[in-house]
Amino acid sequence: MTETPVAQDLAGRLVEFVGALRSKGIPAGTSETVDAAAVIDVLGMSDRSLLREGLASALVRRGGQRDVFDMTFDLYFPAGVGASQAAREMDEDFDIDDLRDLLAMALAENDLRTLEQVAEIAVDLLGRVGENGPTGGWSAYQTLERLRPQTLLVQAIGQRGMGGGSGPGQGLGQGGDFTERLERDEVRQNIDRFRAMVASEARRRTAELRGRDVVTRHAVRVGSDRIDFLSANRQQLEELGRTVRPLARKLATRLAARRRKAHRGRIDIRRTLRRSMGTGGVPMHPVVAKPHPARPELVLLCDVSGSVSGFSQFTMHLVQAMSGQFSKIRVFAFINAMAEVTDMVKEDSDDLAARIGREARITKWHTSSDYGEAFADFHAEHMTAIGPRTAVLILGDARNNNQDPNLEALHEISQRARRTFWLNPEHSMRWGLGDSIAPTYADIVEMHEVCNVDQLTKFVTRLLPV
Amino acid sequence: MRTMPFTSIDDVKAKLAAADYLASDAVATTVFLASELGKPLLVEGPAGVGKTELSRAVADACGADLVRLQCYEGVDEARALYEWNHAKQLLRITAGREETWDEARSDIFSEEFLLPRPLLTAIRNDGPTVLLIDETDKADVEIEGLLLEVLGEFQVTIPELGTIKAEHRPFVVLTSNATRELSEALRRRCLFLHIDFPDPELEQQIIRLKVPELDSTLGDSLIRVINALRAMPLRKAPSVSESIDWARTLVALGADILDDDVVRESLGVILKHQDDLDKATERLNLDEVLGAL
């Protein structure tokens, strides 16, 4: 049994790997780990890319988790140790300009292999920070800052044209505007890929110095369902936007299923007995009562001020997706004045937030949010929107800039509606700090912390009763 | 445990290619593992990337029977597993008025009156079988419980007949478009495969295979336009089946170059929503405006 120590080592690493995945929100259990071990047994360790796909099939459970898995995989099953082959074979007098030329060429020719090598060399050459040891490492940020790949766009497009006939640009029409734009998009995509390669190379090299678990904790980002709405950047927001449609579908099917269930099997006694006359009083044909068309109505009050812009943009996406699934849904936006934006939301335009800012009257004499004023507005003008079947969702951080909270108006609204929920994108431990009056409002309506898609999904699927 | 006669990942690729399915590394690896470990394969991904096609190809490649259960809202045990042929049972009872009750009862719950539905068919099939459970997410939650039992043990218990166990474990493929979350329990029993849009190289090969009459440089351009459209925020991004349709259209139109006009005229083949069409053409127009400045 000469293999045992190796196999044990491998099992240990696999368990560590699964632990790291769990810490990043991929809930792989013991049975998955056993599957993963069986996968390694079948595939062997010789081909790294096949091993990656194999382990992913056993450990990943849904689409959005793959990025996190890949990053962690690179740390625990690295392609090599130390400086890469390309970096070691590099010439002594190779400098940034040479590297940029090489990069531009690779970008122009869609050459992923060369891109990868350039990334390895670049991190080795430009990314070094700190001393050897636990404080040192390689920084992707510093590498990209010095290399500035985004400035190579024009150069790369230029080189494309000179491709001499064999380049991938052939066959597209001569200088059509659409096709020109296409070239630019492609190069941009390649630049993004290159950034990702640099980041993963920097992670790999740093992990060798500082240990895998430290790097996993800090450098591998969490899955898109755990990104905070309030701190998400533009790209993350777009990613969030993509997860919204399925969520709205889920909500709609859930509501439909509940309504269907509520009316299944209710027997109309009177009509059943009447029909049983023909069979001598034996109720051969039970008549099921016709369901009353239940019409759940939804009214949304959304804070669209700057402090929650990430969240409100996201909720607008959600509302947009839901408006396709429901007939009765009304949306109001406010900063310190309440305006109905239902029509705008239904039109499905791209920059909804900007349009609301332009066209709806959501501010009065100042531009900071004022919940009290907005509720007063709603109470005065739009109370007819709420009926006994309406669920009201209020979306906002309850930061009132020290204005009058107007609890009376909110109380009236919640009295009139069937249920009222407040979704707050701030962590609950910050409620009540500074100008937040969340606890005060939470006394009147049920308030939930909804910082990320994960929590929103939980709210939508478990809590929201209609 | 092996369910299909694949010997290696390359073998999977070769056999699937012979069945007109070009598999990426990810697909081939997962299919091989599912066959080796005898686990069901849960395939998710956008519509039209070849999820259903994969099971057909596996069946073709291995000379196995393909048994398909199409899930929909309200599909139940009787539709998925088995049903008793009530009409025939009634006939049997009325035909044999003379016999005693005990004889009649033991008779009418026998093999002859059983109507096997896809799950039972797949389990009883005595050759290699591919069981496709299509659009699992459309079915109600209750059906998942049934699937857990069937996929865990590959056996079915019929109270009147006893337990029927699979002689040959079928190769099971479940597909889902993720309109509903499948339960963790079901996911845990399966290997997971997310099929996304293929990378350009593979898609080119697929186009070449399916539409061989298309000029290859035109094919390259087509893939690039498709990829550009996929990068746009559309309601329904064009998938592989749309690429193939578009390639056929271009052949039918006799186009030899993909310029703005051709793209605009045939865009309806790949974009299925009016707003997507508007969005795409708007971008075209927008670029013209920008170009004129």
From TrEMBL, chain A:
Q: What is the lineage of its organism?
A: Bacteria, Bacillati, Actinomycetota, Actinomycetes, Propionibacteriales
Q: Which organism is it from?
A: Aeromicrobium panaciterrae
Specify the domain of life of the species encoding this protein: Bacteria
Q: What is this protein called?
A: Uncharacterized protein with von Willebrand factor type A (VWA) domain
From TrEMBL, chain B:
Chain ranges of the AAA+ ATPase domain: 37-201
What CDD domains does its record include? Answer: AAA
Q: Which Gene3D superfamilies match?
A: P-loop containing nucleotide triphosphate hydrolases
Record's protein name? MoxR-like ATPase
Q: InterPro entries recorded for this chain?
A: AAA+_ATPase, ATPase_AAA_core, CbbQ/NirQ/NorQ/GpvN, P-loop_NTPase
